[in-house]
């Protein structure tokens, strides 16, 4: 198994095992596919396997936004990647 696929598997394991507010955090129930993909890419960025620029390109966002997401991921883990507006009414 290549190092990259080991890291990707680690990301999947991490996604499945996260806890949020004392309850089990179920990735499939709470995260969109885009948010889950961002989580996997952020794991690669944090491991130093890809640069912030490469990660931003893969996520389709700017390097500045990738830096903000990486900060939220470091502080809150995967729940930090979930859209804060989910479930709230629009203006």
Characterization of this structure:
This protein is mainly alpha-helical. The protein starts with a helix and ends in a 15-residue tail after the last helix. It has one domain. A hairpin with a 2-residue loop joins strand 1 and strand 2. It has a two-stranded antiparallel ribbon with strand order 1-2. It contains 5 helices and 2 strands; from the N terminus they run H-E-E-H-H-H-H.
The tally of domains stands at: 1
Instruction: Work out the number of β strands.
Output: 2
The percentage helix is 55-70%
Structural class computed from helices and strand pairing: mainly alpha
Biggest sheet features = 2 strands, antiparallel
**What would you call the shape?**
globular
Query: What is the CA-CA span between the terminal residues?
Result: 49 Å
Question: What's the overall average pLDDT, rounded?
Answer: 78
N to C succession of SSEs: HEEHHHH
Percent of residues in β-strands: under 5%
């Amino acid at each position: 198994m290549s190092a990259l696929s080991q890291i990707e598997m680690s990301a999947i394991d991490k996604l499945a095992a996260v806890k949020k507010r004392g309850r089990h955090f179920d990735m499939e129930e709470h995260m969109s596919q885009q948010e889950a993909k961002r989580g996997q890419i952020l794991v690669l960025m944090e491991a130093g396997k890809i640069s912030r620029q490469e990660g931003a390109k893969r996520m389709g966002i700017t390097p500045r936004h990738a830096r903000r997401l990486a900060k939220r991921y470091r502080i809150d883990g995967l729940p930090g990647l979930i859209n804060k507006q989910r479930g709230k009414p629009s203006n």
